Amino acid sequence: MRSFPLWDAIRKDQESPLQKELAVMREIPLFDSIPQKGLRVIRDQCHMRQFKDGEHIFRATEPGVGMYIILEGRVRVYSARSGREETLAELEHGDFFGELALLEETPRTASAVSDGYSRMLGFFRPDLDVIIKRNPRLSNLLLLNIARVTGRRLITTTEILDHALKELNQLREKEQ
């Protein structure tokens, strides 16, 4: 069947907000291999949040209670441990952050602030607990995906640290 760009554009504009949110979620690795019905179950547990420019989503040292999926806008994640703010990541539409808080209610290690108006889905630990109780199969898929994402991020962090240590050792050798 031949596709017509005009009709495709009209159909895309007619997508409901829910369909658009599910499409964003579908692209996130946390939801890999989760069927559409399961994705809707997860979306039904999410909470819509809106933030103004400069408004904090969370601050370092606050208890981590959940994750966020950016539907619109930008978020800057930063650390201020050394007395000055250092940007760790700049996130935008389709990105997610804070997922470790779904597993462990430890204090946040960084702060996140909205860079302009932003709209996002919040998925919090109590929401995951509901899914775990009601749908063990779905929760197993979700928890496995969280573990995979966490593992990938840990590998990336280890590679960055390894590279930084090699550079530091090279500098030390030059100084000697």
Could you give a quick summary of the protein structure above?
The protein is of the alpha+beta class. Helices cover 45% and strands 23% of the residues.
Question: What does this protein structure show overall?
Answer:
Helix 2 crosses helix 3 (36-45) and helix 4 crosses helix 5. The chain has helices spanning 5-13, 17-26, 36-45, 125-134, 136-175, and strands at 47-51, 56-58, 66-72, 74-79, 86-92, 96-97, 111-114, 118-124. It has one domain: Sandwich (Jelly Rolls). The protein has 176 residues and is an alpha+beta fold. It has 5 helices and 8 strands. Strands 1-8-3-6 form a 4-stranded antiparallel beta sheet.
Features:
four-stranded antiparallel sheet, alpha+beta, 8 strands, Jelly Rolls, 176 residues, 5 helices, single chain
